[in-house]
Specification:
The protein is of the alpha/beta class. 30% of the residues lie in helices and 23% in strands. The chain is built from eleven helices and 13 strands. The structure holds adenosine-5'-triphosphate, iron/sulfur cluster and magnesium ion (MG).
Length: 350
């Protein structure tokens, strides 16, 4: 079942990305890592969908699959922002170009995203030139406007990445992503490599740009605290699967999946008394090997609430209340700890 949302702009169905594990000189395939394991979801036009989960759960791979930078093993993914829709996984020729213009990605590390030998202005100008979106005389003016939009001056455009701070570099990366006037931005850990003081500036910038340009974001982070500040809806990922999806404030105040509860319990709230009264919920053991999935619920080896049924039966992602989807046999029976409502409803309203 594909998870619904208002006017989807991207829709996936049962999307899987399995990376081969190879051995020996002949690179014999001896196994597969199930990085994305049957993801069906929609991203609504103009929304920020937060994608959260611990390291290695497949967040980046899902983003890369939508950019066609990771090969999908099976399933479907469509871009619905144009008529006719574009089949992301099979697009060729003109459809490929339409996708390149429509969907852009901002990566975690701005230093490695930029060519060290190109000036900031040169990096922003490159996609405009390559896609012939402006005449040679117009390019400079367009680059200057983009730099202004991300809070930089024309003089920053003449500097090389090594002459810019981490926050300024990430602004250049964002300007370059906006250069093609894309409608969808996949932001993969866009602030994780930055100082805490700069993180808030970049998050605010992303929110301002979204409002000004009617952008749609897939906002990826391992940090639920960051995601809840950005997202309208949150999808929680575990071992390649979506285990909970719903409106940001509901997921944060009234989680329904035990894994979401553990992520929420790690968030620090600013009121010291409230924080002291909260309990850190640590899942048992380590994350299982994505190359050797076990039977039953993918979370059962770590879940504090697991029942015998959980060891043999995979829970499906069911709609438990309007817009809220959970993959847990005990959804609705458990009372799980969320963030106090006064700290939670921070997500941008649709
Ligand atoms: N190119 C690749 N080849 C083989 N395995 C890969 C490749 N890229 C990722 N993986 C594996 O796929 C799984 C998912 O990786 P992915 O990078 O998508 O996770 P993530 O959720 O983005 O993690 P992080 O929060 O650390 O960025 C991991 O087990 C990882 O080791
Ligand atoms: S299905 Fe069982 S093991 Fe899985 S999250 Fe729910 S209670 Fe835990
Ligand atoms: Mg990643």
């Amino acid at each position: 079942m594909t998870l619904p949302c208002a006017a989807p702009i991207i829709k996936t169905h049962d999307l899987r990305v399995y990376y081969p594990i190879t051995r020996g000189a002949l690179r014999r395939v001896v196994g597969r890592i199930r990085a994305v394991d049957g993801v069906s979801l929609s991203i609504g036009a103009g929304e920020t969908l937060g994608l959260v989960g611990e390291s290695g759960c497949g967040k980046s791979t899902l983003g890369l699959a939508l950019m066609r930078l990771a090969p999908a093993t099976s399933g479907t993914a469509y871009y619905l922002g144009e008529d006719p829709p574009v089949d992301i996984l099979r697009a060729r020729g003109n459809d490929s170009r339409r996708l390149r213009l429509a969907i852009q990605m901002v990566f975690q590390n701005p230093a490695s995203s930029l060519n060290p030998r190109a000036t900031a202005g040169g990096s922003v100008a490159e996609p405009i030139r390559l896609n012939r979106l402006a005449s040679p005389r117009e390019v400079n003016g367009r680059v200057e406007r983009l730099l202004t939009m991300v809070g930089l001056g024309a003089w920053h455009g003449r500097r090389y990445p090594s002459q810019l701070s981490g926050g300024q570099r990430q602004r250049v990366v964002i300007a370059r992503a906006l250069a093609l006037e894309s409608r969808v931005i996949i932001a993969d850990e866009p602030v994780s490599a930055l100082d805490v003081s700069v993180q808030a500036q970049i998050l605010n910038l992303l929110n301002d740009l979204k409002a000004a340009m009617n952008l749609t974001y897939l906002f990826i982070s391992h940090n639920l605290d960051v995601v809840r500040h950005m997202a309208n809806r949150i999808a929680v990922m575990y071992l390649g699967r979506i285990v909970e999806l719903g409106p940001a404030d509901e997921v944060c105040t009234a989680p329904r999946h035990p894994y979401t509860e553990t992520l929420l319990s790690a968030i620090l709230v600013p009121d010291i008394d409230v924080q002291r009264a909260r309990r850190r919920i640590v899942p048992r053991g380590d994350v299982p090997d994505a190359a050797a999935p076990h039977e039953g619920c993918p979370f059962h080896t770590r879940c504090l609430y697991a029942k015998p049924r959980c060891e043999v039966e995979v829970p499906l992602l069911d709609e438990v209340s309007p817009g809220c989807h959970v993959a847990c046999h005990l959804a609705g029976e458990l009372t799980l700890a969320g963030i106090d409502a006064q700290y939670a409803p921070r997500g941008v309203k649709p």
